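Researcher: We're teaching a course module on how sequence relates to structure. For the next exercise, students receive a sequence and then see the predicted structure as tokens, so they can try to spot secondary structure elements on their own. Here is the exercise chain.
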Amino acid sequence: MEYRNPLLLKCAAFVMAALIMPKVAAASLDAAIEAAIENDPWLVRSLALERALQTDAMAAGALPDPSLSASLANVPTDTFDLSQEPMTQLIVGVSQRFPSGQARQLRRRRLEQMSASAPIDRLIRRAVLRRDITLQWIDAGLAQETIRLIDDERILFEQLEGVTRASYGAGSGKTSQQNLVRVQLELTRLDERLLLLEDSLQQAIAALSEWVPGSILNGVGSFDPVPGQERQVAFPVDHPEIQGIDQQIKVAEVEVRLADAARRPGWSLHTQYGLRDEDRLGRELPDFVSVRINLDLPLFPRNRQNKQVAAAAERVAASRSERLLRLRELDARYTQLQRQLQRLNQQQSLYVDMVVPQVTAMAEAALNAYTSDRGDFAEVMRAHIDLLNTRIEVMRIGAERQKTIAKIDYHLTRSPS
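Model: And here is the predicted structure for the students to work with:
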């Protein structure tokens, strides 16, 4: 008859379960991300601000409103008779201001470029939500799966305590009081670990509740420790964060042109119509028409306009330096995450292929030796604790691998073409 090691089969089943993709958990995570994005007030605010900037851009491109004036001029103060003096007149005037150069078009262009940043900001926000929710979801799933694993192992230790207590009560020389105290101590330590894990689980769920409805949080559970697709590509220079800075540079470049336009004079047109009454002899007096042009004189550009242009140019240079700095930071972080993922892959393979089978065999050997009166009870306890810690470590490595991939996916975010 073929011999089957029950402890080895149990651990093999655990490893296989850890390597199978839980479709329900993945679907729940997708639903959580979708719900968070759909109900994010930040995205609603961004869309409203974009529309506001677009409306402001249309207004900025229009001419300023003309002004209407009315006055009564040259009225004699002795009689206040409007027909006494030929110069007495009712004057109605209209004035229109014309900004210098292409100031109107540039102001409109500046606001249009600012509004163009909003879709990029929303893309970054969605990517950040996807990354952060995934990280919290994995933390919650890891805590919950570890709790389940410890609960299962606690049953084994409780059974071991019962056997040890019965053997000690029967006066068996094989079982000492130290053995009984040892298994009770390990049960207490398991309870302590469960309390810490429950706290970690509640913290992760509380963090998720900021974005995700409670009905979806009920699906928090296991996670997929081994996704199928590797991320072995170069860091994209068209990452939305870089595109956002590029948009800031475009805004700053328009501001340079706008500051340069202030060097050119603005002007205004004033027209007046003076209505006169009849003179004392009843003769009609001709009305007066006046036209006046006011021209700005930028006579001192060194202290104002030139300084504004220089300041705007410095802002462009600062934005370009910021782009280079952010690109280096993202590229370095992406390279670091790729190396971390490779290390976790190697570590996971080492545990699955070697550590778990070896620790399982050690636990089985210690138990067989003890039942054959050739081993020590303390060795049995240490072996089973090592086995539990190894199984927990396998899940932790899988969770860290998933979190690393989630961070890599954020760095691979690109704008839709």
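Model: If you want an answer key for the exercise: The first helix runs from residue 6 to 19. The longest strand covers residues 89-98.
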